[in-house]
Design brief:
Length: about 190
């Protein structure tokens, strides 16, 4: 495999050879006429690993009234609402519940012209979005855009609980509004 090592070194890709899982891929891909194929496959795999979320941060559920929805989650499901917060620029009031490492975020519109107000008017109450925790949010948004994903937020913005957030458009995520979240305190 010295020819692969030389090719990668000439292209400034020595870093790839220092990563054991990538080297494993390079050594186990059959290279017949072009070592460049092995190089590209490894780099794509490496990029994929950097896109991977750490966990599901929360599930956002649009409701008409927090006052009506919170008791259901507390009395019926036995969860505790640990925070209620208004995100003024998004025209929404939120309530949070923890279920293991994941949270449930209830979203009540404070303005019928806001995103949650429009969602409820069009689709009714229900699951609004799925949020994934990531490290390096700005890089993840850039990487998603480079991969052809339509973004709602090209740069991170402030969300509830002090998280930095960015949304991916549902047209690029199989109909699911997808939020990427990063805790700036980590």
């Amino acid at each position: 495999m010295p020819e692969i090592s030389d090719l990668l070194s000439e292209n400034g890709s020595v870093y790839v050879l220092k990563q054991p899982f990538l080297l494993f891929l390079l050594l186990h891909i059959r290279v017949k006429s072009s070592t460049f194929v092995a190089f590209r496959l490894s780099i794509n795999f490496f990029n994929y690993l950097h896109m991977k979320p750490t966990h599901i941060e929360h599930i956002g559920i649009a409701v008409k009234s927090l006052d009506e929805a919170i008791p259901f989650y507390e009395r019926v499901l036995g969860l505790t609402c640990y925070a209620v917060e208004e995100v003024v620029d998004q025209k929404v009031k939120t309530a949070f519940f923890k279920v293991g490492q994941t949270k449930i975020e209830l979203l009540e519109s404070t303005d019928s012209e806001g995103p949650i107000g429009k969602f409820i008017e069009k689709k009714g109450e229900g699951i609004h979005h799925l949020a994934f925790a990531v490290d390096g949010l700005a890089d993840k948004l850039k990487l998603a855009e480079e991969r052809g994903v339509k973004l709602i937020d090209a740069t991170p913005r402030k969300g509830a609980e002090g998280l930095n957030i960015g949304f991916l458009h549902p047209k690029s995520t199989f109909g699911v509004l997808t939020e990427l979240c990063e805790d700036p305190k980590k």
